[in-house]
């Protein structure tokens, strides 16, 4: 979504540049419309990031608990979960006792004495900073684009006013 908004903004900027060179009202209006759409996309992305982050963390929670259940049954899950536990320094989905609940031994990648928290908490902590950063950046860019739209509209009205008075 963010990439498409960036591409739209780039295309809109090129259209605006062409509009300045050619001095065509139609091109200037397309430029302003593209900027408005781009600003709305940025604002919507920021809002959705704020609203849907809880959904993401619920999915992480359910997926990791499911992975612990299938830990000894699926070799791929076992390898990925071991890698996750060693990389993030976590143990189990919620805690090392997750393995005891399924009557399993605690894997070597899980060190309950060293890792005092589960992988859900580790992923949540890791992703939280990036989601908040994404949200703030989207809001900032939406505000900047809104200011740019306002300036473009004022310049367009000024240009149209000059053309009407000279005719």
From TrEMBL:
It is a multi-pass membrane protein. SUPFAM superfamilies: Tetraspanin. InterPro entries: Tetraspanin/Peripherin (IPR018499), Tetraspanin_EC2_sf (IPR008952). The chain crosses the membrane at residues 33-51, 133-156. Keywords: Membrane, Transmembrane, Transmembrane helix. GO terms for cellular component: membrane. Pfam families: Tetraspanin. It is found in: Membrane. This is Tetraspanin. It comes from Schistosoma mattheei.
